[in-house]
Each structure stands twice: as structure tokens, then as C-alpha cells.
Design a protein that fits this description.
By secondary structure, the chain is mainly alpha-helical. It has a domain at 41-76. The chain has three helices and no strands. The protein is elongated.
């Protein structure tokens, strides 16, 4: 019995290109992933800084809001009948009230 072996050509064109292509592909992928990682870390840092600025702005606005609310309450407590008379308002003598018919009655009268 004779055995015949198929001898592979190790110097074929595919084998020569395979090693550098894989090497440079891995290097390119590594550079790409490092670039993406750097970009994402940069965006994260900028978002943290923006959030801190927003928190400081919210604190400042809350302080101003508290000041405005206390000013409003003090002005509201100063409104009384004497202030109204000094501004030219007067007491009404004849009070009239308007009655509106119920909505159900109004719609039943108009729809025929």
C-alpha cells in the first residue's frame, strides 16, 4: 500500500498576506477602540462638569426664589382695607349676582 500525501504550499500568496493583514487589522482595531474609549471618557467628564454647573445654578435660583417668596409674603400681608381706600378703591353699595341656568336645562331647550 502506498500512501500519498498532499503537500501544501506554505509559500502560497494567501499565507504570505495572512500574517501582516491580521497584525495590522488588530492594530487598527486597537487604535479604533482606544479612540472610542477616549472619546467616551471625554464626554463623561464634560457631562459631569455640566451637571455640577447646573446644580450650582439650581442652588442659586432656589436662593433667589426664597428671597422673592419672602418679599411676596411681606407685600401680601400689607394689603388691607386702608391701603385699598388710599389707592382709590371704594366699598360697593349695590351687589348683584348673576345666575346661570344649569347646563342640562340649557342643552335640552336648544336641541329639538
Amino acid at each position: 500500500m502506498r500512501a500519498r500525501a498532499l503537500q501544501l504550499n506554505r509559500t502560497g500568496s494567501l499565507n504570505r498576506l495572512e500574517s501582516p493583514v491580521v497584525f495590522w487589522g488588530v492594530i487598527l482595531a486597537l487604535i479604533l477602540f482606544v479612540g472610542i474609549y477616549g472619546y467616551l471618557v471625554n464626554k463623561t467628564v464634560w457631562n459631569v462638569v455640566a451637571r455640577q454647573r447646573a446644580e450650582k445654578n439650581i442652588t442659586l435660583l432656589n436662593t433667589q426664589l426664597g428671597s422673592l417668596e419672602s418679599n411676596y409674603m411681606s407685600l401680601k400681608n400689607n394689603i388691607n382695607l386702608n391701603l385699598a381706600h388710599s389707592l382709590g378703591f371704594s366699598q360697593t353699595t349695590d351687589t348683584k349676582y348673576i345666575n346661570r341656568p344649569a347646563l342640562g336645562r340649557l342643552s335640552s331647550n336648544t336641541v329639538e
